[in-house]
Amino acid sequence: MIMRQASRDVEIGGGTVPAGATVTCLIGAANRDPDRFADPDRFDLSRPELSEATSFSAAAEHLAFALGRHFCVGALLAEAEVRVAVNDLLDAMPDVRLAEGATLVEEGLFTRGLRELPWSSPRSPGASTDARSGTGGAAPSGTRGYPRRRRPRPTMGLYRAGSS
């Protein structure tokens, strides 16, 4: 959410924002502009409209981390967290999938997120029965029931080498 105050009357979309009025911009909505993104409401890690090389930089082609002098100083930390979390998840549960028939519902006004993320994964050898499924918005705590495999992390790309 970005709040700005109009220094003069401004016409936007057929309406007028009077001087002195406060305007609240929900930048998450900008990333769902159908004039900019094909099928904007679909979650797609490999959108052809976006360059992976600039996704977590001030040169990004989306507004998730704002722009210019207001660019989020934590963007590179967010990138590292996503890469580590996704790689750890895929190491622990390489066959994790969205649960069949799952309906994803987003909530929130200023920051949006899923109400829950139902998932499933075939059990790994030696897994306890309760480590197999997860609903209610969270993956299982740690890697309980799944063997931890240590391997070098990729430096580029969201997925482990050899995954699709």
Biggest β-sheet: count, sense, barrel? Answer: 3 strands, antiparallel
How much of the sequence is in beta strands? 5-15%
Classify the secondary structure makeup into a structural class.
Answer: alpha+beta
- Provide mean pLDDT, rounded: 75
Q: What is the overall silhouette?
A: elongated
Residue share in helices?
A: 10-25%
Output the keywords:
two-stranded antiparallel ribbon; 2 helices; single chain; 3-stranded antiparallel β-sheet; disordered C terminus
Give the secondary structure arrangement, pairings included:
Layout: E1 2-5, E2 10-12, E3 15-17, E4 22-25, H1 27-30, H2 75-92, E5 97-98, E6 106-107, E7 113-114, E8 119-120, E9 133-134
Describe what this molecule looks like in 3D.
With 164 residues, this protein is α+β, with helices and mostly antiparallel strands. The chain has a domain at 74-159. It is built from two helices and nine strands. The chain has a three-stranded antiparallel sheet, with no helix packed on it. The longest helix has 18 residues, at 75-92. 5% of the residues are buried. The model is unreliable at 124-164 (pLDDT under 50).
In short:
The chain has 164 residues and is α+β, with helices and mostly antiparallel strands. 13% of the residues lie in helices and 15% in strands.
